[in-house]
Amino acid sequence: MVMIKGTPGDDEIVGGAGNDDLVGGAGDDRLDGRSGDDQLDGIDGDDELYGGAGKDWLYGWVGDDRLYGEAGDDWLDGGLGADDLYGGDGHDELAGSSGDDRLYGGDGADRLTGGAGNDILDGGAGEDQLYDREGDDVLEGGAGDDTITDVGGNNRLHGGAGDDRLGTGGGADRVDGGEGTDLWIGNFEDLTRSVAVIPDLQPGAFTVSTGTTVRNVEAISVRGTDFDDTIVGGAGDDLIVGGGGSNTLVGGAGDDEFSFDANGSDMIDGGDGTDVWWGSLTGLSGGATAILDTTPGAVTTISTGTTLRNVEQLAIEGTSHDDMFVGGNDTDRLNGDAGDDWLDGGKGNDLLWGGDGNDTIIGGAGDDLIYGAYIYPSPFPFVPPIGVDVIDGGEGSDRLLADFVHLTEGLTLVLDTTPGATTTASNGTTITNVEKLEIDATAYADTISGGNENDHIEGRGDNDRIDGRLGDDYLYGDSGDDVLMGGGGNDRLWGSSGSDQLYGGDGDDRLDASDLERDILSGGAGADRFEYFLAWDGGVGADRDTIVDFSQSDGDVIDLQDVSTRFIGTGAFNGVAGELRYEIAGASTLVSADIDGDAGADFEVELLGRIVLTADDFA
Questions:
Q1: Quick one: average pLDDT of 172-190?
Q2: Where is the composition biased (Basic and acidic residues) (predicted)?
């Protein structure tokens, strides 16, 4: 990098084709980086800086400077003074700092930050990010899907063409979404008085009690204050967060979402569309009740005092006490948290989460996901449960998700999928009308049988016996000498460590032995894959695996695709790494591989039966 420093006077410094470092010093200087990745520092005076081609860094420092990034992805920082910054082509970052600055992004996806002063930010073409929090600013997104945020002062925000997001705070702002599908985000949580957001007669227009006016937006996302707010949505899909206080929240047309905490009693009207109420009740000192009435115009009263009208879905996080939540005809998300809770999803495809305590969980009609116990990850905060649950999936195809890792003895759970039949697990949990399982079992010896649909069952520790039955199942043994049976369907069986027995059953199954200990593998009917992903997945000698029913006519293959090998038939090893051979000995066929090139077998698997293998039997 070539460094050129100017004099105390007015200098003109021009770089070359390489990476230059040009420093103007005192005076009104003109610096031109030309080609290369250059750094230009104006220092004192009213300077002009031109980055030229390449990725350039331009710093005006003191004075009223003009910075031009030109071609390339550039960084422009005006410093002190009233500066003009032009990004030009490329994805540029422009920072105004103090003073009344003007920032123009130009082409590309640019990021503009105004700083202090009354600034003008113009993103130009591309998907730009414009941000300012001080002064009375003008922010213009231009063409492209822009994100524009100015939370301080009284500002003018214009999205321009594209699908834009325009965010404001508690000032008196003028917001115009422009063309496209635009979202206004209003955050009033720092106000020390209540706020009112009311739609105008013109579609997409709103008036705010702070003096803000909004037009040409298709949806709003508004967070209220800690006082008694009135927030009314429009025709789009709106998000309305009331905050503290006793609020009046109205969704209008569209599929709206309302968010609530325990600090207030709100009146909520979803209006037209499919609307959802998100409620967090964790701070209450007693249990809560919410029984949703989805009759058009009917009022649901929550035990906190909040009322719901024209709301179709509940999404509730309960208290640490005994709660009762009943959903409606749509998709509900009910989390009992701690306590002995009663959860009823009603109709629809629901997510029901019992949490800690002895819970009663009823799925109702629809294809439901039922979390009877601790499982990770979750959509809610949780504590590990200790309890006995009563679970009824109701109509539809329901899945129970549960983690029994906290039990101090092995789990026995043999699912009975006969309609109306009840399965009682060894820990006392009862399960009715559940068609499929997703279970993490204990660190002890478990016996688990799934249903007729797609199960996901993991045994964890000790010697487990897991039967997937029908459906496309995933069975995992973990440590211990496990017996995994896929049953009908296209199953994935993974024994992990220990001397395991894997039986695929009917269907095109994948069997993964994955350790150096001796496993017994049976694919059953169908085109099965016996998978070895690492060279040390198969042992040798007495530790080698045995495949009892390898069938070329069924399309079985031994999958060694992550082990680099070359098939050489029945020939002897030649001391070349990666050779794969077989030999027929008695009633068996022995497959072996020399991974390291020492002419000895590093990997072996025995196939019962005298089988003439070809390269097509391996993948």
A1: 98
A2: 27-37
Q: What is the distance between the alpha carbons of residues 354 and 333, in angstroms, rounded to a whole number?
A: 11
pLDDT in tens, 260-309: 877 678 999 999 999 999 988 988 999 999 999 999 889 999 998 999 99
Residue 164 tokens, joined: 């834009």
**Calpha distance 301→307 (Å, rounded):** 4
pTM: 0.76
CB 76 within 8 A of CB 40: no
Both structure tokens of 163: 């699908």
Q: Is 59 exposed, middle or buried (0-12, 13-18, 19+ CB in 10 A)?
A: buried
pLDDT, position 388: 73
Q: What is the 3-class SS of 170-221, one letter each residue? A: CCCCEEECCCCCCEEEEECCCCCCCCEEEECCCCCCEEECCCCEEECCCEEE
Strand, helix or coil for residue 132: strand
Domain locations along the chain: 1-135, 404-531, 538-619
- Angle, vertex CA 178, rays to CA 175 and CA 181, nearest 5: 105
CA dist 379 to 316, 320, 335, 353, 488, Å? 11, 17, 9, 9, 33
Does 513 score more than 80 pLDDT?
no
> In which element (H, E) is residue 391 found?
strand 390-392
Q: Which tens digit of pLDDT belongs to each residue from 91-136?
A: 999 999 989 999 999 999 999 999 999 999 999 999 999 999 999 9
Residue (of 8, 45, 44, 37) closest to 20 by Cα position? 37
Please state, in angstroms and rounded to a whole number, the distance separating the CA atoms of residues 166 and 239.
14
